[in-house]
């Protein structure tokens, strides 16, 4: 993927392009050239410029008219335009700004001034792009969260309505009660996870460290998910250390990490398969956990994105996910000074590995 900033230079004199290219030689930009306003406009989609450097005085369509046309487009309006002009009167410079220019530079061009103005405009453009990306993430997150919340609420409401049916057998009543409880717990878990993740990211949450026995922690998580796993006839295989050891973590948050990884493994595991939970003490105060499944696995191009917060549209084995659970795991593990990685299981599936080290407190 090309990460160089692209600059479109619009000037009817090729020699001027050569001068600008010389000034920007060591700046690591991708430079493009258009001989007039018409060619500049038609090249926008291909070039995708981060900044446009445009001469004012050009035949047929001058820089002011070209600037106005570009700024009238919602697609290109955010792209900063620097006008290059030999005009010096305040009225002429005001015309450049009125046409939509974001800055201007006078002829003859000086290299230091040119580089400074381009740096400034690129900083503004990159800040704009970051804001737009954040807004897109937020919009996608809200849409997906509303979808997930609606699913759980719909399940609860439908089950509650069915419970009102007078001839419903006690067995079916219990099924519906269990469905309501399950949907409610899912809602609570989703909301709690978001709140904890927000606090961890903002640095406003202080981890409450205490010692926990890895064996006891993992066994209790497996027992919690045993009923759900049985519905898909999934067998848990636990490879755990002997009871009696200890690891210093925020137990409530770390338990949620293991919960999320086990839940994710069940979600993507086929029926009649296995999930392997391995854990061990690496050295005093450090531990390593592995959750292995035999599902479809994760494509290489998704392995970095899968931990991104609010990653939308990721589909594995026709199952979509928001990325919230794995994003929470990554943020929470890093808050503990640890790391999470993903690799292939063999012959198929995924292995999520969590490593945490002894807590070091600084004063």
Automatic annotation (TrEMBL):
Instruction: Show where the Response regulatory domain sits.
Output: 6-122
Entry's EC annotation: 2.7.13.3
4-aspartylphosphate occurs at which residues?
55
Q: Which reaction does it catalyse?
A: ATP + protein L-histidine = ADP + protein N-phospho-L-histidine
Keywords tagged on the record: Kinase, Phosphoprotein, Transferase, Two-component regulatory system
Residue span, Histidine kinase domain: 144-360
UniProt GO molecular function: phosphorelay sensor kinase activity
Instruction: Indicate what this protein is called per its UniProt record.
Output: histidine kinase
User: What organism is the protein native to?
Assistant: Anabaena sphaerica FACHB-251
Ranked from the top, the taxonomy reads:
Bacteria, Bacillati, Cyanobacteriota, Cyanophyceae, Nostocales
């Amino acid at each position: 993927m090309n990460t160089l900033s692209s600059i479109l230079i619009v000037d009817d004199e090729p020699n001027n392009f050569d001068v600008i290219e010389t000034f920007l030689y060591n700046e690591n930009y991708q430079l493009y050239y258009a001989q007039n306003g018409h060619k500049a406009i038609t090249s926008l989609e291909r070039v995708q410029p981060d900044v446009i450097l445009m001469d004012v005085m050009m035949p047929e369509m001058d820089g002011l008219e070209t600037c106005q046309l570009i700024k009238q487009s919602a697609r290109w309006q955010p792209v900063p335009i620097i006008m290059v002009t030999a005009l010096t009167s305040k009225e002429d410079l005001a015309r450049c700004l009125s046409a939509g220019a974001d800055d201007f530079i006078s002829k003859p061009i000086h290299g230091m001034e040119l580089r400074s103005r381009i740096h400034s405009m690129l900083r503004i453009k990159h800040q704009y792009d970051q804001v737009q990306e954040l807004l897109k993430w937020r919009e996608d997150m809200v849409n997906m969260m509303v979808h997930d919340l609606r699913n759980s609420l719909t399940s609860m409401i439908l089950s509650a309505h069915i419970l009102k049916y007078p001839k419903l057998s006690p067995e079916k009543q219990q099924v519906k009660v269990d469905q309501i409880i399950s949907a409610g717990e899912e809602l609570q878990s989703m909301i709690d996870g978001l709140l904890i993740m927000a606090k961890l990211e903002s640095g406003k949450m202080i981890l409450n460290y205490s010692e926990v026995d890895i064996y006891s922690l993992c066994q209790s998580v497996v027992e919690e998910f045993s009923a759900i796993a049985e519905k898909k006839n999934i067998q848990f295989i636990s490879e755990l250390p002997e009871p009696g050891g200890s690891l210093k973590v925020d137990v409530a948050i770390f338990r949620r990490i293991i919960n999320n990884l086990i839940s994710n493994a069940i979600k993507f595991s086929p029926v009649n398969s296995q999930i392997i939970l391995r854990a061990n003490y690496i050295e005093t105060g450090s531990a390593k956990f592995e959750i292995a499944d035999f599902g479809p696995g994760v494509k290489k191009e998704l392995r970095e994105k899968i931990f991104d917060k609010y990653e939308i549209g990721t589909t594995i084995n026709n199952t979509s996910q928001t990325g919230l659970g794995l994003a929470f795991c990554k943020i929470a593990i890093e808050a503990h000074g640890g790391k999470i990685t993903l690799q292939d299981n063999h012959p198929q599936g995924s292995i999520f590995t969590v490593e945490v080290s002894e807590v070091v407190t600084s004063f």
